[in-house]
Amino acid sequence: MAEATSFYRWRPHPWHGLEVGRRPPRLVHAYVEITPFDLVKYEVDKVTGYLRVDRPQRSSSQPPSLYGFIPQTYCAERVNALSPNSERGDGDPLDICVFSERPISKSEVILNAKVVGGLQAVDGGEADDKIVAVLENDYFYGAIEEILDLQEILIERLRHYFATYKMVPGQESQMVVEAVYGRDHALKVVSAAIEDYEEAFC
Question: What are the pLDDT digits (tens) for 148-162?
């Protein structure tokens, strides 16, 4: 008889049912919603936990990395307090971008991510930080410890993507990428989002 192991009997909700990570805030889980091959914006439905089509991308811009969120995080007052020019948190789980050398073309996957920095973004007055991370055991990016160790062009592409992915021709974008920050501040943002989640949902 096979040895009994613990397992989920039913599919857990990606936001609420998955663990935040093995050693947060440094090593976290990332639930991938969008890959660099997607020209459609997908987003987890907050009620069902299934991936929902949010919108086709208006422009030809593609995500330069894997893009999703950290489970059991929430952007509310503590996250907002770390964003000088925002009025409130965006009420969503904390976004994360993960670099991997080998192409990962599937979404709805969980991976172990090492936090190295982030982008301070404000969307319509809401704190909408994007944590930047690398795949923990990646043979190329795995040794990266700090966002400045990544190639500058990668960060430039991230900034451009998030500054433009919601743009509508003839209208001013509500999304502003205000700064790039390093690992130490990123760890504070992740910790704040975990505490916001615990207060709101636990």
Answer: 999 999 999 999 999
Closest to 178 in 3D by CA, of 115, 118, 94, 96: 118
The CATH classification number of 27-201 equals: 3.90.80.10
Q: How far is CA 130 from CA 61, 75, 139, 173, in A?
A: 17, 11, 23, 17
3-state SS class at 96: strand
Contact between 120 and 181 under an 8 Å Cβ cutoff? The reply is yes
Cβ-Cβ contacts under 8 Å for 22 (sequence gap 6 or more): 29, 112
Give residue limits of the domains in the chain: 27-201
Place of tokens 């990266």: 144
pLDDT digit string, tens, across residues 56-100: 877 777 899 999 999 999 999 999 999 999 999 999 999 999 999
pTM, full prediction: 0.94
Torsion-angle region of residue 144: left (phi > 0), alpha (psi -120 to 50) or beta? beta
Contacts of 147 (CB under 8 A, 6+ apart): 116, 117, 118, 132, 155, 180, 181, 182, 183, 186
